[in-house]
TrEMBL record:
Name of the protein described by the UniProt record: 6-carboxy-5,6,7,8-tetrahydropterin synthase
Record has Transcription regulation as a keyword: no
Catalytic reactions on record: 7,8-dihydroneopterin 3'-triphosphate + H2O = 6-carboxy-5,6,7,8-tetrahydropterin + triphosphate + acetaldehyde + 2 H(+)
Cofactors (names): Zn(2+)
Transmembrane segment boundaries: none
GO molecular function: 6-carboxytetrahydropterin synthase activity; metal ion binding
Domain of life from the UniProt record: Bacteria
Biological source species: Mesosutterella multiformis
Pathway: Purine metabolism; 7-cyano-7-deazaguanine biosynthesis
Amino acid sequence: MFTVTRYHDISCGHRVCGHENKCSHLHGHNYRITFCCAGELDSLGRVIDFSVIKEKLCVWLEEHFDHRFLIWTEDPLADALLSLDPKVVQVPFNPTAENIAEYLVTVVGPEQLRGTGVKLIRCDVEETRKCTATFTL
Ligand SMILES: Nc1nc2c(c(=O)[nH]1)N=C([C@H](O)[C@H](O)COP(=O)(O)OP(=O)(O)OP(=O)(O)O)CN2
């Protein structure tokens, strides 16, 4: 099996609801998100053109998460934050790096890559240069 990867950098705010320490505070990261796609080679010898990964997945990040604040729908602070800024993004998970990676692979990938014959099989979400979470199908 062949795989191709492409990363994209976004700035995003979040808090980890229930975190024992400083990550329960509102804060942000310059995330590096690496997409890994798998599939058969086309007649030119590509899994998928790198520009299609950009168009389908990196642009999705720009439009939905970049320069936005991610808040879990069940976070007790969600209503207060939404009343301050209706552009706060409600997500159906506590926004740890792990959960962001899983959401991208299981929800966003299948929607965005529908019809391409290619699957998003892994996503690495780097919160800082020291810390990365990965979800793999
Ligand atoms: N497994 C996970 N652990 C943590 C996550 C996560 O998503 N998955 N997230 C956080 C926080 O978001 C936090 O901002 C990062 O924590 P931490 O590495 O402790 O903080 P720093 O980058 O500031 O590192 P220092 O070396 O302490 O300065 C926490 N954990």
